[in-house]
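Notes, p. 3: input format for complexes.
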Amino acid sequence: MFMTIKVKNILVSEIKCSNCEACCCSSEVMIISDTGVPEQHIYVDVYGNETMLRLDDGWCSALDRNTLLCSIYENRPWICREFEMGSNECINERVEKM
Ligand code: SF4
Ligand code: SF4
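Output follows (98 residues plus iron/sulfur cluster):
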C-alpha cells in the first residue's frame, strides 16, 4: 500500500535542502578530520576541540547568508558530508527550526 507521511505540511519525499532554511547549519558541527576547513571558520575550545564557528545568529560562519548555501562546500567537515537530506536527523532539525 502506498503511504505518504507529512512532516509540518510537507511530504517526506519533498524534503529538499532547496526548500529548507539551512536548518542543520545551526547545529554544533565537530571537526574530526582534516578536510581543509579555512581557519577563520574554526572554533577551538579550551580543550583543543574544534567545531565550526557559529556567529551571533546561530548559523555556521561558513553559511552564505544570502543563498543559504555552504560557502566552503568542497572543504566542508565530514559530519556535514554524512548528514543526509531526508534522514530522521534532517527531519528533526526542520521540525525544530522552521
Ligand atoms: S540536510 Fe535537511 S536540515 Fe539540512 S539543509 Fe538539507 S533539508 Fe535542511
Ligand atoms: S560547513 Fe557548510 S554545510 Fe557544514 S554547517 Fe557550515 S555551512 Fe553548513
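Strands lie at 6-7, 10-11, 42-44, 50-52, 63-64, 69-70.
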